[in-house]
């Protein structure tokens, strides 16, 4: 280890590192686990959006693989995004309900990132891109150490391909959906308007997710790339704004919880994407009456049908 520091005349520098030795071995080894979104272009933010939420999950499919029976105990957290991120939160979910906030920063800046000690230890039970390429993760510091080092998710790519097929058909665009076109190229070819952005938001909120569970050796746990439905959660987010503060935008969990109270659509169309002549009445575009809740619910129903590998 080498530490370089500039010596300034008439200044005293007391910085440095202290090393301690003890003959009594600690009870637990500490660990760092990365939570959030997989580094992948499938989780994209449409252009010129002022507020667009993305959510990553660490589900029981991962935690039950590696966590001890008593769970892990988080004592510190480092929220992390690149230049686009403005707010980050990590919450504990039990029985489909957000029950505890691990860390939250509603005024996040990529230029000020720190490891924050938690006010109390939080128990969780088993149950490298460039600066212009965005990410959303949280490095939690915990004990006892386990082999689970990375627990993140992304939208299932098969359902994302259905989104591209649907939006391009809606706009009558010619676009190759074969493997030769990368996800980045397909996003660049989308004709972005308020509807295509809203459908993408609904896709991220309701479509199945792919879980990634990596060991400390960077090797994935056997069968760790799992595709299943994203949790539909009750939110812990306060519904009343504090005095002198603007109300926070609803979380994905809050939006989904509110949508569950609505009657599901009665359309029985067998597959997605739909023919163009049926798509417009379904979403109420002719009358301009489509709402985010309607789009989200109907899109969820549509994406639930058919083989996601056949867009």
UniProtKB/TrEMBL annotation:
Domain of life, per the record? Eukaryota
**What's one GO MF term for it?**
dopamine beta-monooxygenase activity
Show the Gene3D superfamilies listed in the entry: 2.60.120.230
Q: How does it sit in the membrane?
A: Single-pass membrane protein
Descriptive protein name? DOPO hydroxylase
Record's keyword terms, sorted: Copper, Disulfide bond, Membrane, Metal-binding, Monooxygenase, Oxidoreductase, Transmembrane, Transmembrane helix, Vitamin C
Cofactor(s), names only, from the UniProt record: Cu(2+)
The UniProt annotation puts the region (Disordered) at 244-269
The Copper type II ascorbate-dependent monooxygenase C-terminal domain, residue ranges: 28-127
Its GO biological process annotations read: dopamine catabolic process; norepinephrine biosynthetic process; octopamine biosynthetic process
| Annotated Polar residues bias | 257-269
Q: Does the keyword 4Fe-4S apply?
A: no
Give the UniProt entry's GO cellular component terms.
extracellular space; secretory granule membrane; transport vesicle membrane
Where in the cell?
Cytoplasmic vesicle, Secretory vesicle membrane
């Amino acid at each position: 280890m080498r530490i370089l520091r500039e010596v300034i005349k008439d200044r005293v520098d007391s910085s440095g590192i202290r090393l301690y030795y003890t003959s009594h071995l600690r009870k637990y080894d500490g660990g760092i686990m990365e939570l959030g979104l997989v580094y992948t272009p499938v989780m994209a933010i449409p252009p010129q959006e002022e507020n667009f939420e993305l959510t990553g999950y660490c589900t029981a499919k991962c935690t039950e693989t590696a966590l001890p029976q008593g769970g892990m105990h988080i004592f510190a957290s480092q929220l992390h995004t690149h230049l686009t991120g403005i707010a980050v939160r990590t919450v504990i979910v039990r029985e489909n309900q957000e029950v505890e906030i691990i860390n939250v920063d509603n005024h996040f800046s990529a230029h000020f990132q720190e490891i924050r000690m938690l006010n109390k230890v939080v128990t969780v039970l088993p149950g490298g891109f460039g600066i212009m390429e965005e990410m959303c993760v949280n490095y939690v510091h915990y004990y006892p150490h386990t082999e689970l080092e990375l627990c993140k998710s992304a939208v299932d790519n098969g359902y994302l391909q259905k989104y591209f097929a649907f939006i391009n058909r809606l706009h009558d665009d010619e676009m190759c959906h074969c493997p030769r076109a990368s996800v980045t190229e397909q996003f660049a070819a989308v004709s972005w308007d308020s509807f295509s952005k809203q459908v993408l938001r609904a896709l991220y909120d309701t479509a199945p997710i792919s879980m990634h569970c990596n060991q400390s050796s960077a090797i994935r746990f056997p069968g760790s790339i799992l595709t299943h439905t994203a949790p539909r959660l009750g939110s812990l987010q306060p519904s009343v704004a504090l005095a002198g503060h603007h109300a926070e935008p609803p979380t994905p969990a809050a939006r989904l919880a509110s949508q569950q109270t609505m009657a599901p659509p009665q359309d029985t169309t067998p597959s997605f994407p739909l023919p163009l002549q049926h798509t417009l009445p379904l979403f109420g575009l002719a009358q301009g009456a489509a709402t985010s809740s309607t789009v989200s619910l109907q899109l969820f129903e549509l994406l639930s049908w058919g083989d996601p590998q056949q867009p």
